Amino acid sequence: MSERERRRRARELARLMAELDEADRRNGLGAWPTPAPQKRRPTGRRTTWVISMVVTAMVLSIVVALHPGSQASAIRRLLGFGPERILAAPELPSGDGSHAFVMTQRDGTTPVGYDPCRTIEIEINPDNAPDDHRDLVETAMRHTSGATGLDLRITGTTDDRPAQRSRVSGRAPVLVAFANEDEWPALEGDVAGVAGSAMMESPSGRRFFVTGSVVLDADLFTDEDVPDASLQAIMDHEFGHLVGLDHVEDPNELMYDENVGLTSYGPGDLRGLAEIGRLPCE
Ligand SMILES: [Zn+2]
């Protein structure tokens, strides 16, 4: 096939894809029905939060599996015509260290992460937040984006509280909010923040995150005796959870479950973040 002919076919295929995308939108793929609110509020620490998100995800995966409108991406994959990453995939760091993933694909080893071909939109609720909260969030985004090649972007502010967002289904912006333990019991005791993402499964069985939340302890973050570096480390740690890292039993990593003075991602954290960031597009 001549170069010219090849280009013509590529254009034709791109047009077809655009139409299929449009069909997806008309079929309401961007607005899945809302599942019933969960009756139980989270009462434990992060584990409970993750479980409640997984429950949401299971409901949604059924909806997605039954939904007929999501053929466009499957067709793209079949044709080897995948959507393009927004940012370049990171190199895999060779350093040692420990990392763990919050969730894996059905093979039990490949992590679940966000789609690198989509922007992860973030909305901040500034209520109860420290004055410099936007700096903290933007810095954590920069560190996490740098390690994963995921495109994280603040798209605005919101009045939504975490409880409202934990019932949101489908693709919604990630919520960053500041709360106390009366409002968000997962922050009970000395928990400085909780974060997690909701998973969906595509008809092909691939799992991916579509939305999530980062909830920080408002009392801690507005305590002027706490150094900025510690708050930044907590924010970075929570963003690690958001994109799919779990805790490790290694005090040399930021994903150690206690803050022991580390202020940036360790070698294992960076390796795990790169693996998450190198996942193929949806
Ligand atoms: Zn943690």
Give your account of this protein's structure:
A hairpin with a 5-residue loop joins strand 4 (193-201) and strand 5 (207-217). The chain has a five-stranded mixed β-sheet with strand order 2-1-3-5-4. It has helices at 3-26, 46-66, 71-78, 133-148, 162-165, 218-221, 228-243, 267-277; strands at 120-124, 152-157, 174-179, 193-201, 207-217. By secondary structure, it is an alpha/beta fold. The chain has one domain (3-28, 41-277): 3-Layer(aba) Sandwich (Collagenase (Catalytic Domain)), CATH 3.40.390.10. The model is unreliable at 16-45 and 58-70 (pLDDT under 50). It is 37% helix and 13% strand. The structure holds zinc ion (ZN). Zinc ion is lined by residues 46, 237, 241, 247, 257.
Topology (elements, then pairings):
Elements: H1 3-26, H2 46-66, H3 71-78, E1 120-124, H4 133-148, E2 152-157, H5 162-165, E3 174-179, E4 193-201, E5 207-217, H6 218-221, H7 228-243, H8 267-277
Parallel strand pairs: 1-2, 1-3, 3-5
Antiparallel strand pairs: 4-5
The structure holds zinc ion.
Zinc ion binds next to helix 7.
CATH-defined superfamily: Collagenase (Catalytic Domain)
Separation of termini? 30 Å
Bound molecules: zinc ion
Computed CA radius of gyration, to the nearest angstrom: 20 Å
Contiguous uncertain segments of 5+ residues: 16-45, 58-70
Tally of structural domains: 1
Q: List how many beta strands DSSP finds.
A: 5
CATH class bucket: Alpha Beta
Query: What string, H for helix and E for strand, traces the elements in order?
Result: HHHEHEHEEEHHH
Query: What's the helical proportion of residues?
Result: 25-40%
Question: Which geometry do the CA atoms define?
Answer: globular
Mean pLDDT: 81
Briefly note the structural class of the backbone: alpha/beta
Sheet bearing the most strands, described? Answer: 5 strands, mixed
The CATH topology assignment is Collagenase (Catalytic Domain)
Which strands sit side by side, in order, in the main sheet?
A: 2-1-3-5-4
Percent strand equals: 5-15%
* CATH architecture assignment: 3-Layer(aba) Sandwich
Number of helices: 8
